[in-house]
UniProtKB/TrEMBL annotation:
Cellular component terms (Gene Ontology): plasma membrane
Protein name according to UniProt: SNARE associated Golgi protein-like protein
Keyword tags: Membrane, Transmembrane, Transmembrane helix
The keyword Cell membrane belongs to this UniProt entry's keyword annotation: no
Regions that span the bilayer: 12-32, 52-73, 132-154, 166-184
Length: 193
């Protein structure tokens, strides 16, 4: 399908600019498979001087979309999960998720993990909407503003690096965040010297 091709969305970005970016960032956080990075990178290559504006739009509308994904999970997914797995099991998973929800949403927003999975899951597990919003803004902002900064300071020549290496770098940073968080929790519980 043409609508799922990267070229289609690159052309869409150039045609509709920040409005297309806002639309894509919003729907991607709920259900759509094409990440806003495709449009963000396209716009940043075309106009690096406005890269931070594009990052702001992507962060803002992706976070708004995250709220939409949350409510989709809350009103649509939660009753289905209760029916499929039972209310007790869902509540048990909720308690586990609740312990790590800030870190989970932060990592989902920052790394290449599909963000929509965690926005909808947060609703299904009736996690804190407030935490979802805060950590979505932080995680999505870190990702999009990092991309924008590279284009703003180095121009279109960093496109190859961003396309081929940035997801790996984000993943490595995400792994270190998880390790750091787990070490901190063990230290706080007195299990480390």
């Amino acid at each position: 399908m043409e609508i799922l091709s990267l070229q289609y969305w690159q052309d869409f970005a150039l045609k509709y600019g920040i409005y297309g970016l806002a639309f894509n960032a919003f729907i991607e956080a709920i259900f759509f498979p094409i990440p806003p990075d495709v449009l963000l990178i396209t716009l940043c290559v075309a106009d690096p001087q406005n890269a931070f504006l594009y990052a702001f739009i992507a962060t803002l509308f992706s976070s708004f979309g995250g709220v939409g994904g949350y409510y989709l999970g809350y009103f649509g997914g939660k009753p289905l999960a209760f029916k499929l797995f039972g209310e007790d099991k869902v509540k048990k998973v909720h308690r586990l998720y609740e312990s790590y929800e800030g870190l989970i949403v932060l990592l989902a927003g920052f790394t290449p993990i599909p963000y929509k999975v965690f926005t909808v899951t947060s609703g299904i597990l009736f996690a804190s909407l407030k935490k979802l919003i805060v950590f979505s803004i932080i995680g999505r902002g870190l990702r999009f503003f990092s991309e924008a900064a590279l284009f703003y300071f180095y121009g279109a020549q960093v496109k190859h690096f961003v396309l081929h290496n940035l997801n790996i770098l984000f993943t490595v940073v995400g792994v270190f965040l998880i390790i750091g968080f787990l070490v901190y929790r063990r230290y706080k519980k007195g299990r480390l010297p």
